[in-house]
Each structure stands twice: as structure tokens, then as C-alpha cells.
Amino acid sequence: MEALPELYAIFQGEVATVTEYGAFIKIPGCRKQGLVHKTHMSSCRVDKPSEIVDVGDKVWVKLIGKEVKDDKLKLSLSMKVVNQGTGKDLDPNNVSLDQDERKRRMFRDYTSQKITLEAVLNTVCKKCGCKGHFAKECFVQPGGTKYSLIPEEEEEEVAAAGYERDKKTSVADDSSKKRKK
Fold it and tell me: How far apart are CA 99 and CA 120, in angstroms?
């Protein structure tokens, strides 16, 4: 069996092939290749790995994962945690690698879940008399401030129109009283 580098070892490899999802790097001292996924090429977003590396380029990489799948050993490499000029480890404690793994694990797809409004709009509290909640959810103390739902825009427009109409009729009544005198 060929001698593979230790996990989290840094070495300089040569780019063997470039795909749309990353680049395969030849590991020195053995015939194996490892994949640098496009998310591990740079700390910035990479859309096309061919813009970052070309076949034959020498790059510094860190071995970040070994996985046996279908009796084949798959090696994961990272370029973003290694200085490409000097080969120095930019993440010696593997903190950013742990954070990346945690982000991937914690992602959940919430698109299939329906969002519901938990307010009960057409109810009146028996305790305080306000709209929008039940008596068991009421926090009004005896003699305390009463709160209710904010009226919808349509309700405000209707109320404003009613106010304007009342105002006009009262002005008309005042002018008719003045004429009688």
C-alpha cells in the first residue's frame, strides 16, 4: 500500500484535472489524487474552478478528509487554509474546517413547511374585551392597560372616511345655525 500523508498534513501537489466542481490534485509520493472542491479553493466564492487553477499548476493543499466509499479511498483537500505562496498553515487548529462542517450539518430545508399566523383575529377576550386573543392568553391586570390588534389599512380608511363625513355634517350644521340668527 502506498504511503498517504497524515490527516491535516500540508504538501505541494500538481493539478491533474479541473472540473466544474473542483480540481483533482496529484499527491506526491503516491499515485493517488485528491479533490479540492470549489468551496475549498478560496475564502471567496468560486463559480468556475478553471479561473483559479490550470492543469499542471503547483498548489499547496491540506489533507482535510479521508473517506472509504465503494472500496475506494476518497481524499478531500483544501487550498483556502494554506498560504499559496509559502505553504504555511492558515488554520493550524482546524477551526475554520470545523465551522464549515457545522454550517453544512445545521442547514435545514424549511421550504416545504407552511408558515402560519398564530394570531386569532376574529375573537374577543372575555377577560378584557379586546380583540385578537383568548382569555387564557390575556395578561391584563385588573385596572391595567388594555391592548388590541392594530387595525388593517382598509379599516383605517373606512374610519377616516367616516370621520371626514361627520366633520362635514357638523360644519354644515354650524353654518345653517348661523343663517337662522
Answer: 41
Task: Round to whole Å and give the CA distance between 96 and 53.
Answer: 22
Distance of CA 17 to the CA centre of its chain: 32
Q: Which of 71-75, 104-108, 136-140 has the lowest mean pLDDT?
A: 104-108
Where does residue 163 rank: exposed (0-12), middle (13-18), buried (19+ CB within 10 A)? exposed
Amino acid found at 162:
G
Give the residue from 46, 67, 51, 45 showing the smallest Cα distance to 18: 51
- What is residue 124's three-state secondary structure? strand
| Mean pLDDT over the full length of the chain | 79
> Mean pLDDT, to the nearest integer, of 111-138?
70
Give the integer Cα–Cα distance in Å for 33 and 14: 9
Q: Report how far residue 13's alpha carbon sits from residue 57's, in angstroms, rounded to the nearest whole number.
A: 8
Residue 22 confidence class, pLDDT cut points 50, 70, 90: very high
Q: How far is CA 46 from CA 40, 118, 162, 170, 180, in A?
A: 9, 41, 60, 70, 85
Question: Beta-strand (E) ranges in the chain?
Answer: 10-18, 22-26, 33-37, 58-69, 72-78
CB-CB contact of 112 with 106 (8 Å): no
d(CA 14, CA 59): 6
Please tell me the distance from the alpha carbon of residue 8 to that of residue 13, in angstroms, as a whole number: 14
